[in-house]
Amino acid sequence: MLVLFPLRQPRRHFQRMQQITEVLLRHGMGYVAAQLGLPLPRRIQPAAPPPETAAARVRAVLEDLGPTFIKLGQILSTRADILPAEWVEELSRLQDQVAPFPMDQVRAQIEAELGAPLETLFRWFDPEPIAAASVGQVHRAELMDGMQVVVKVQRPGLVDEVEGDLAVLTEIARLAEGRTAWGKVYSFTELVDHLAREMRAQLDYTVEGRHAEHVREVLADDPDVIVPAVYWTYTTPRVLTMEYIEGEKLSDVIARCPPLEERRRLALLLARAMTRQALRDGVYHADPHPGNLLVTLDGRLVFTDFGLVGFLDEPLRDALIGLVMGIIERDVTGMSLALQDLGVLTRPVPQRALQRDLQRLLQQYYEIPLSQISIGQTLQQMLSLAIKYGVQVPPELGQLSRTLITLEGVVRQLDPDLSLMEIAEPVAVELRRERFSMERISRELRRNAIITARLLDQLPTRLQVLLQRLEEGRLPVIIEQGDLDRNLPQIGRLVNRLAAALVISSTLLTAGVLLGLGAAPTWKEVSLPGLVGLLLGSLGGAWLMWSILRSGRL
Which CATH number fits domain 103-155+204-244: 2.20.28.10, 3.10.20.90, 3.20.20.140, 3.30.200.20? Predict the structure, then answer.
């Protein structure tokens, strides 16, 4: 029996729900509306046969529902951690091209945001947009000082429209969780909350401006790559003004098919810039399709449109570097450890089973040259494997895999023989070498020394609480005797190893504190006593491991 959508929401929300139902019915997805109990329209317009696959039908539905749903679909296309590869690929095809809104609305939006008449802000403003999408459109202009700029103006009333649609989506998520089995499995309310945060961030052009500046800073030392400057005096949450760079769209360059040498040079520029952004600096342009890239007259590459930018913290980058090196070196053990470092373990991982699956995955590439391995698709396979074994993968990795697949597609359009894996290999090797540099080790030891100092500061209080509970008899201890006598030798060896490990750990911690404080005497600003302690602790650890592996006893 169909249960109608609750009438506690505003009338416009109810009308939007009716529109959503009509679109679902039009694309052969009326069963979803029925399961959710959405209001059925009195008349159903006939439509062309729906696309064959469920993913294609969902894409068509999102395109028909307008800007909010298109943007949400584009955000979902970055979530390879929760969606199958065919869904990610289909949602990546979402079209976001609409007719531009008129100049009088552009003027009104700019003047309301910047607080001055258009003629006093710009010496010249082109009424014809050079690009238009469902969220906003871009115009060329000239500032009063003669600087050439582009002005991105958000579609008027869009924020209210999006907020209304997000409220409707939240209600749909509640209905899905309350009335459907699939809604309970995927936690739709939490997913909609995450998508809403992403959507609101993308509607704030000051966020996009900060993203552009961040990437500009990262690529500042690359003379062959340009990121336009942001003019903050002329930028608000609804208006973004950036430096105008003359250039040809990369999509047009690909279409006219220049000589292979030029295409190969551009492919190398793009691949190196993107791998350096992601692996070295942890911030990268997350939508590098040919329409967002320009080529200047002197052959430099220009990144534009920073609505979608990815961030990777240092531990995540370290795990990715380990994963890339594991693939390159066919190292199953290294890949297994790196895969578990990609996220949070929700349950114990059966190591042998995981390594067997990784071995099967690597067997696909044994006879294939490195140049033919897709790093984006391989990462997607790795993420699916991680999820299978209970690794809670952060959404940043889903976005990265989708970005890499887009990037590989562009690179291969330019030069089919160029492999992103081959470009990433020297970057990963260099960064792995940096991980074990004295500077990096010293920095991590200083950080660990601070953590240790805090723990030592809290230790007396914790010991006092422990002793007080022990005196009051409130400390439960459970002992199962079992074969205690037979196991006493093993317990003795365990205690000996534990004591040795504590001595070695204390040596390493002391060395970390000395290195962190820069205790004299020093050599090249590194504490010699700390260095000696580090060496002794490392040798002691190596001896302990060798003893255990050799004979099982100390």
Answer: 3.30.200.20
